[in-house]
Amino acid sequence: MKKIFNIQEENKNSERLVEAIKHDIRKYIKRERSKALPKDFGFWDFECRFGQTSQSVVSVHSAQLSAELDKALSEKWDACYVEIIAKPAQKPQTTSKVEGK
Question: How far apart, in whole angstroms, are the C-alpha atoms of residue 84 and residue 60?
Answer without folding.
Answer: 10
